[in-house]
Design goal:
The complex is a heterodimer of chains A (186) and B (418). Chain A has 186 residues and is an alpha/beta fold. Helices cover 39% and strands 19% of the residues of chain A. Chain A starts with a strand and ends with a helix. The model of chain A has no long low-confidence stretch (mean pLDDT 95). Chain B has 15 helices and 15 strands. Chain B has a 7-stranded mixed beta sheet, sandwiched between helices. The N and C termini of chain B lie far apart (57 Å). In chain B, helix 3 packs parallel to helix 5, helix 7 crosses helix 9 and helix 11 packs across helix 12. In chain B, 49% of the residues are buried. Chain B has 2 domains: 242 residues, Rossmann fold (3-Layer(aba) Sandwich); 127 residues, Rossmann fold (3-Layer(aba) Sandwich), CATH 3.40.50.920. With 418 residues, chain B is of the alpha/beta class. Classes of the chains: A alpha/beta (186), B alpha/beta (418). At the A-B interface, helix 1 and strand 2 of A face strand 1, strand 8 and helix 10 of B.
């Protein structure tokens, strides 16, 4: 089983991100379970969502405590929430930020992970460029597909288009594709 | 058709396939997505011949449902938590009048202290109202139980609650085989009411009944639940023939044969329990579990059969009867009256506290060693409790308990401004 935890703030699409991951996995014939952290979500408040991927039925209902991968939508959370809690030693870290791990003050911690498992991606900037709004979801999902190899970019694209048909989906897909290329290069 | 979909959305879709003629809606977390979903299907014209009524409260929601059902309309509503309490009088009336309303409960804790998260206290508060209560283990079962619930309710003329764990199921996206309209039509016949308020043939329902007949009318309500004990497995069998899936029924045993320690629970926590059972069996432990699907009627015989041979029972329950312990455990003990074995109560998951594999495994291991107390609160913070007990004893005006405990656990929390 592969477990993903997503940290963000209310309004950034934290819950939608987990949903889209699960839909992308479903399109590949896998089992997936996505669920939010069940808080009283408010704009700007820290929000967590989870996604589990497996090749058979997922029965477990506890929150993800030892994730294989972390997606951090907002780097300001690094200093207010223990986002790295329980992350597996060989886990993946994807952060929405154009700043280096050094500038974010987490270089030492991130350095303990395999270099190709960690990535800081300017997902909000990619969203501004393609979508015109700083919603980093699609770009982060593209980036996640690239660094983890758990999902094909094509199924992420399909999931995005299903949720947001038409021009909105296409703009998000463009952000996801560019993020995928960037994350692959990095 | 297989879909990756939110539990609430799938339930809304399948409720629409059941062709309700009246849906009374009042939103309350975590049930809201369901009635919103049904509303959207009515608006889109997908669900036709359905009166969707926005009411002003939960009391109104069920009161309107009672009126609608009494005219012979297939009627649906949904609620949770305080909403169920607010409609309490109507809950008893719907059952007492024998009206086959189907209501989803998105299970949530009851205040005070106010809490929006999952446990089973809401459904438990209405366990003796005369409604049938079915608990879904997965979202697939939640979907399937709604189809079965309409058939069961209408065959008996008795209301049915389908209880789904709030957030854990209602807000989870997972793979669900959502049936088609044709499949549901093949399983669920049109509603043939046993009583109809009809101006052409007028009569009244809801008579005042004195001591000479009240016991008899109440006995018949009990007898109806006993009929449901027979009917629930029959309907599950027919369902399996039509849909090819085993869902519903009275109880779901899991590796109970020859198991010394058997866990019993309602709802979605059974998934986590099964994973723990698999893990422990790999290590040679003699453990199994039983998921109770039908809590009312309570399946005394089916449960006794499933638990025969167990040396001890550990009931994991998401509700607390203060001053007693566990409601489910008390019922399980009744099932074992002839061959009593220790039945331990583990109060878990109150107000959304996660029930983890680690904690469950520890409880089952301690039980296996014969060291589990009669009642245990899973992952209880003993020091927080002790601290508050000592503090409250020391000061007469010790203040509100909930606020004191929160302040103690979150010392950095800024004090409220005067």
């Amino acid at each position: 089983m592969f477990q993903i935890r997503i940290h963000g703030r209310g309004g950034q699409g934290v819950v939608t991100a987990a949903e889209l991951l699960s839909v992308a996995a479903f399109k590949e014939g896998r089992h997936a379970q996505a669920f939010p952290s069940f808080g009283s979500e408010r704009m700007g408040a820290p929000v967590i969502s989870f996604c589990r991927l497996d090749d058979h039925e997922i029965r477990l209902r506890e929150p993800v405590q030892e994730p294989d991968a972390l997606i951090i939508q907002d780097p300001t959370l690094l200093h207010s929430v223990n986002v790295f809690s329980g992350l597996k030693p060989n886990g993946y870290i994807l952060i929405n930020s154009r700043r280096s791990f050094d500038e974010l003050g987490i270089a030492d911690f991130v350095g303990t992970f395999p270099a190709h498992h960690v990535c800081d991606l300017g997902a909000s900037e990619l969203a501004m460029k393609h979508v015109g709004r700083p919603l980093p979801n699609a770009a982060l999902l593209g980036g996640f597909a690239a660094i983890s190899g758990e999902l094909q970019l094509d199924s992420v694209v399909e999931a995005i288009m299903e949720k947001f048909p038409g021009p909105v989906g296409e703009a998000n897909v463009a952000a996801a594709r560019e993020a995928y290329r960037e994350a692959e290069r990095a | 058709m297989l879909k990756q979909v939110e539990g609430s959305a799938a339930v809304a879709e399948v409720v629409a396939f059941c062709r309700p003629e009246v849906v009374c809606a009042y939103p309350i977390t975590p049930q809201t997505h369901i009635v919103e979903g049904v509303g959207a299907l009515v608006k889109a014209g997908t669900l036709q011949n359905c009166e969707y009524i926005n009411v002003e409260s939960e009391f109104a929601a069920l009161s309107v449902a009672i009126g609608a059902s009494a005219t012979g309309a297939r009627t649906y509503t949904a609620t949770a938590s305080q909403g169920l309490l607010f409609m309490a009088e109507a809950v008893y009336n719907a059952a007492g009048l024998g009206l086959p309303i189907v209501m989803t409960i998105g299970n949530r804790a009851i205040g005070a202290p106010i809490n929006i998260w999952n446990d089973h206290t809401d459904s438990m508060s209405m366990k003796d109202s005369g409604w049938i209560q079915l608990f879904a283990e997965t979202n697939q079962e939640a979907v399937d139980l709604h189809i079965q619930a309409f058939r069961l309710a209408e065959e008996l003329s008795c209301p049915v609650m389908v209880c789904i764990d709030g957030f854990i199921l209602t807000h989870a996206y997972e793979r669900i085989d959502v049936p088609t309209q044709e499949e549901v039509d093949a399983f669920l016949p049109p509603f043939e009411p046993v009583q109809v308020l009809d101006p052409a043939e007028p009569y009244s329902i809801g008579a005042m009944v004195g001591p000479e007949a009240f016991t008899e009318v109440r006995y018949l309500a009990h007898e109806k639940q006993l009929q449901a004990l027979r009917l629930i497995p029959e309907i599950a069998d027919v369902f399996k023939d039509v849909f090819g899936r085993e869902t519903g029924g009275l109880v779901h045993p899991y590796h109970t044969e020859g198991a010394d320690t058997v866990a019993v629970a309602l709802g979605s926590v059974n998934g986590t329990i099964k994973d723990v059972i698999d893990q422990m069996r790999e290590d040679g432990a003699s453990v199994g579990s039983v998921s109770i699907c039908s809590f009312r009627p309570f399946p005394l015989e089916a449960l006794a059969a499933a638990l025969a041979g167990a040396k001890r029972i550990v009931v994991i329950e998401k509700s607390l009867a203060p001053g007693l312990g566990g409601v489910v455990a008390s019922n399980v003990r009744m099932a074992l009256a002839e061959k009593p074995v220790p039945v331990h109560t583990v109060i878990a998951g109150l107000g959304g506290r996660p029930i983890t594999m680690t904690s469950l495994r520890e409880v089952f291991e301690v039980a296996g060693e014969g060291r589990l107390p009669d009642i245990q609160f899973l992952d209880l913070d003993h020091s927080a409790v002790e601290h508050e007990i000592v503090r409250a004893r020391a000061t007469r005006r010790s203040g509100p308990t909930a606020e004191n405990v929160i302040r103690q656990l979150n010392p950095c929390r800024p004090a409220a401004k005067a």
